[in-house]
Amino acid sequence: MVQPPKTLLCPDLKLFRKGKVREVYDFDDHLLMVATDQISAFDVVLPSLIPGKGAVLTQISNFWFERFKTQIKNHLVATEVKDFPQACQKYADILQGRAVFVKRTKMIEFESIVRGYLSGSGFKDYKKSGSVCGIKLPEGLVNASKLETPLFTPSTKAHEGHDMNISEADLKKQVDPALVDLVKEKSLYLYNQARDYAQTKGILIADTKFEFGLLGDEVILIDEILTPDSSRFWPAATYQPGTEPQSYDKQIIRNYLETLDWDKTYPGPELPQNVIEHSFGKYKEVFEKLTGRTL
């Protein structure tokens, strides 16, 4: 069971929602989204922090939002604390770099997952059925195989526990089919553009998830995008189909936890300092490779 810590970074602001690793504050038709340094694994928020994690993930996301802003509108209003409402200014030191002020939208209630490589739950599904989320794939694929065409494999959003994969056909029974088609088109476009760019920087984007919201009748991009927490990033130099790729995401932490005698329920174990430093080092590396900037 997920048990996020109860202390808030900005206790005087009106809380809209506290997630596993993020706090969202209510400003009527806007929201303040704050990425903490907390980390979750196996749906449990761990007691250890990854110092700087929230800021680096926010900066990666902001990089992509800026890159794609002419192709698709997004929810960003301000990324600098000086441009946030006055009530936020007392928390400037806490918020700097890890918070964004955004338009409040009506969330589209499914996650848009795009897979360009066969990995994770997709590979497990393939080994059992020869398909991924009901999409039949060629025989003979191995772990980390590049897919001929990226797959749109949505999932339903869960407020507790795991999101659930759903076929596109079944999703269209629950959500306006025209909306599903539009989100699919936008998601595949964004993935293809990001994949091609990242590859020039020596990074493979194996899969990722996007979230969209409705601003009036307009579909816009929300939440975070193309970070190591919402995507699988692999170094291109060591990529080898049929093996478990090295990773820029929190797989480092999952791998460590798998060595422990822990039943994956709350409370989670403390992380050793070397795992914390290694994890942050990978977040920092992917930021600097993608953006060409020093953190």
Structural summary, described in words:
The structure is a single chain. It is built from seven helices and 17 strands. The chain has 295 residues and is an alpha+beta fold. Strand 1 (15-18) and strand 2 form a beta hairpin. Helix 1 (53-68) runs parallel beside helix 7. The chain is globular, with a radius of gyration of 19 Å. The two termini are 34 Å apart. It catalyses: 5-amino-1-(5-phospho-D-ribosyl)imidazole-4-carboxylate + L-aspartate + ATP = (2S)-2-[5-amino-1-(5-phospho-beta-D-ribosyl)imidazole-4-carboxamido]succinate + ADP + phosphate + 2 H(+). This is Phosphoribosylaminoimidazole-succinocarboxamide synthase. One of its GO terms (biological process) is 'de novo' IMP biosynthetic process. GO terms for molecular function: ATP binding; phosphoribosylaminoimidazolesuccinocarboxamide synthase activity.
The oligomerization state is single chain
The averaged pLDDT comes out at 93
Shape: globular
Low-confidence stretches: 1-5
Q: Tell me the CATH superfamily of the largest domain.
A: ATP-grasp fold, B domain
| Biggest β-sheet description | 8 strands, antiparallel
Briefly note the CATH topology name of the largest domain.
Answer: D-amino Acid Aminotransferase, Chain A, domain 1
Name of the level-1 CATH class of the largest domain:
Alpha Beta
Give the class from helix and strand content and strand pairing. alpha+beta
Using the CA coordinates, give the radius of gyration.
19 Å
- Topology pattern, helix = H, strand = E: EEEEEHEHEEEHEEEEEHHEEEHH
- How many distinct domains? 2
According to DSSP, the number of beta strands is 17
Measured by DSSP, the beta-strand proportion falls in: 25-35%
Report how far apart the termini are.
Answer: 34 Å
Helix proportion of residues, in percent?
25-40%
Name the CATH architecture of the largest domain: 2-Layer Sandwich
Helix segment tally: 7
